[in-house]
Design goal:
CATH topology of the largest domain: Heat Shock Protein 90
Number of strands: 20
Strand order of the largest sheet: 12-11-15-16-18-17
Number of domains: 4
Helix content: 25-40%
Radius of gyration: 28 Å
Distance between the termini: 60 Å
Number of helices: 17
Shape: elongated
CATH architecture of the largest domain: 2-Layer Sandwich
Length: about 500
Amino acid sequence: MVIKSQYDTRITEVFLMSAEEDQRFDRKRVNISTQDLATHIVGFANADGGVIVVGQTNDKQFQGVNMVGQDKINAMIKASVNLCVPPVLAKVEEIPIINSSGNEDRLLLLHIEQSERLHTTTDDEVYYRKGDSTIRLNNEARRALEYDKGSRHFEMEEIQDCTLDDLDDTVFMRYKDLTGYTGSLIDLLTNRGLAVKKHDKIILRVAGILLFAKNPSIFLPQACIRFIRYEGMKAKTGSRSNVIKEYTIEGPLVTQIERTKEILQSQLRDFNSLGQMGIFDTVPEYPEFAWQEAIVNAVTHRAYNFGGLEIMIRMYDDRLEFDSPGKLPGMVRLHNIKELRYSRNPRVALTLSEFKYVRRWGEGIDRIYDEMQLFHLDPPELAETDQSFILTLKNNIEVRRLRRESSIALNIGPDNWLDLSPEQRQALEFATMRKKVFTKDFADFIGRSRVTARNILETLVEESYLIRVGSKPNDPRLHYILKSSEEA
């Protein structure tokens, strides 16, 4: 007997028998009271939405629902309407199973939408899904949530100009391969709320365009990512501009994520540091999970209704900045971001989770903190402006310098490195960072005159560590490069 939800492709037998409860998934025994069930329905609707499976125990055994009779089952189905104020939008699905006693039975699945309104139980209590628990909110938290739910989710806005011809079949085929989905693209779009059918015409919503259109920026010009790599630790403008690389990344969100990961990876460097027992270890510049999750987080949770503002990723020598349009959503604030979850774009978030970008719902920020700590780097810095949320990953510039020196020493030999003067070591370090070393730039770097800087560079040419490119001393294009760079 195949277990497969038509509304949520995650829900398979393997998933039900292995998945842990989280922000968007919960199991309930069949003997749960309808009033208790209503509290969980309200909690899901007030948070990110999700699925409640009735008829499965906490230890993941299939109990089924037949034992309680159809009247109780009907009462549970109607709980989202009769016991929630205002009624909660929930799609009901019954899935046939073989229960733990070996008999034919069924599970009751309640697919609950994240709501743009505040919901209460009939006794006027407000509940909220937090991680794998449903909590009751106090009056202050209730008021904050009620205020934040005042505007409709932009991802549900309908875009009349986008047609099925504008969609990317390759992204849909990847989705089918990953999830085992057997329906059509139209079925997926309408069942998931990514499109609506009106008068025999399919009208795409913002979320559907972001996820499956060939080029969402045709309809949503702000739906792209800009990546800028600066030389140094601050941005300069005009004739002193220090932009090394600049990219604009467009396409379906999955394409944007993957292309951005490729670009950022190409700009990161590994460092060799002298580890235990005198062995050189290769250490990444930043923890891979941290910067990849920062990309996914920005794409998933940005405010796409902010026209003229793209996601900005700025890379400096000492930090990475991920600037995502829109302030923190829902009740999430800087002080509670590790504890509370609230998705501004729940349909986008759900679909991207099915593309395997997040292994477990809501673990991202917590794990970024953990990964930075494991790398002995500062915790991520979180900040809000009037228009955006900014996550900054800082690198330890002193550790980077030591790693760079260790790498150079490894290349030329530790004994040769120790024979060099401090100024010569600085020159090789500078050449490693800049690739091309101009006398003026090196003079500024060490705070000495150009004549002194040139003399230091020339000694390294004589010792075959650097190569001079250009012959005339007054040639403005004259520069120096590492010998290894020329040979490569």
